[in-house]
Every structure is written in C-alpha cells, then in structure tokens.
Amino acid sequence: MTTTPVSARTTSPGTAMTDEQREAFERDGFIVVPGVLDAEEVAHYAAAVDRVYAEHQEAGKLAADGSLHKLSAVESCHELAPLLNHPKAFGLVWSMLGWNVHVYHSHLDVHPPLPEKKPFRFEWHQDGGRQNRELESDPRPRMSVKIAYWLSDVSETGRGNFQVVPGSHKTNWIAGPPRRDVEWPNPDGAIEVTANAGDAVFFDRRIWHARSNNYSTVTRKGVFFGYTYRWVRTREALSDDIPGLTPVQRQLVGLHDGDGDHAWGHYPSDVPLYGALKDAGELNPAHPPLIP
C-alpha cells in the first residue's frame, strides 16, 4: 500500500506558465507537461483509481466493454483531492483563467484493452455541451480549461489516446457524419497525443477532441479536472422544500436534477422548459439555442 505523496500535502499554488507554454497553448489549444507526477504519485493515484474500478466491477456497474467513466472525481475517490491544485500543473489554470476559478466538472477514466473492434461512433466534440450552441461569438469564448493526469503509459498510439486537432480551438464547426454511427474519417490534421504515465495534458475546452479506442495490451487510466469561473454557477441558495413550484420553476431555481448530465442539456426531453416549449410549438430551428 502506498502512502500519501509529500507533494500532495503542499499548499503552494504552483508557478505561472512560461511564455513558451502560453504561446504553444494559444496556438495549438493544448500542451503536454512532462513529469508532473513522479513515480510515487503515479503509483498512489493509480492504486486509488484501481480500488474504485474494482468496487464498480464487483457491483456490476462497469460499461459493457469493461470501462469506467466516473464523474465527480474527488467525491468518487477522495484520494484524488491533491490533484485539484497540484503545484506542477495548477499554475497553468490560474495563468489562463485567473484566481476566481473552481472545478465545475471532473471524472476518472479506466479503459481496459478491447478484445474486438467496437462499432463505429463519431465522438469528436468540444467540451461545454450547450455552450457550443448558445454562445454566439466566432470563435466562442474559452470559458474553461481542463487538465488530464495520465496514470498509465500512453506514449504510443493505439492505447486509447487523447486525440485532438491542433489549433481547432478557434473553430466553431468541423465536418461530421449525419449520424454518429455513420462511418466517417477523422478530421483533417487530427493526431493522437502521446504521453508517459505522470505527464499531464492541459487543454482549452474548445479544442476538437475525442478518445481513441484502446486495442493495445495496456489499460488506459486518467483523471480529468475542468476549471471555469466561479460565477458560472447559481448564486441562489434554496432548500428543496419550497411548495407549489412547477417543474419549469424548479429548473429555474436550480432544484431540478432529473437530466443527470450536469445541466449539459444532452437529454432535452428531461429538461422541463424544453418540454414546455415543444408542447407550445416554440422550438424554432432557425434559432440555434432552440435546436435539440
């Protein structure tokens, strides 16, 4: 059993990103930071993630392919808390977004080798969900950044690597298939990002990216933290026992939790206001924010 790494107990906010890192990040939309976690830390955090995986495996809660994509990383695995502000990576966050930030989205991922080819699904996307329809500018604003900590060796392609199109964070749209299950080539310029265990990838939420399938002999493990401004959240503090609220009213005051996707809006039929607008015939497809 590993002990908590010394670096996990530091209160240092880290150091600012270098001019070279900033230039590369602004140009490419991502950077790889080598050696953020030392061997002791990799072993510690990988063991913690392995325990979570084993618990879900025993409970029959893994995906059909044996993978685990677990939201709320720290809530799901308390040992991961030091990664929230690891001194060798956290400086990248406040260098880009400033000091008024918080983690709004996080997850731990385990993807064992696939024994056979999976059915095709086009997975290229930008982070942020409905932000990418509802914000009007071109390019859309950055809004958030993300750190991926690698706990397994993805130094070769084909290991479920993080795929990106460098520079695509300034592009609101890429060509894609009419349905996600229609065979379609990767976007022009797409690459698989390679990294060693202990490396971190820091990326702009707008970069077009996807996870590749893992057909290697290595289990892919990583922990992801998304940071945004603290004002991207409700300022209300309401109890759940206010009588007489309609479903739409509950949505508006932040008490509706039926969609289960962090308010991303991926499941329109679960969002009360969507249902009300649909019933009223007000979902005008000429206005992008109203498109399901």
TrEMBL record:
Lineage per the UniProt record: Bacteria, Bacillati, Actinomycetota, Actinomycetes, Micromonosporales
GO MF annotation: an example: 2-oxoglutarate-dependent dioxygenase activity
Positions of the UniProt region annotated as Disordered: 1-20
Protein name: Phytanoyl-CoA dioxygenase
Organism listed in the record: Phytohabitans rumicis
Cross-referenced InterPro entries: Phytyl_CoA_dOase-like
Polar residues biased stretches: 1-15
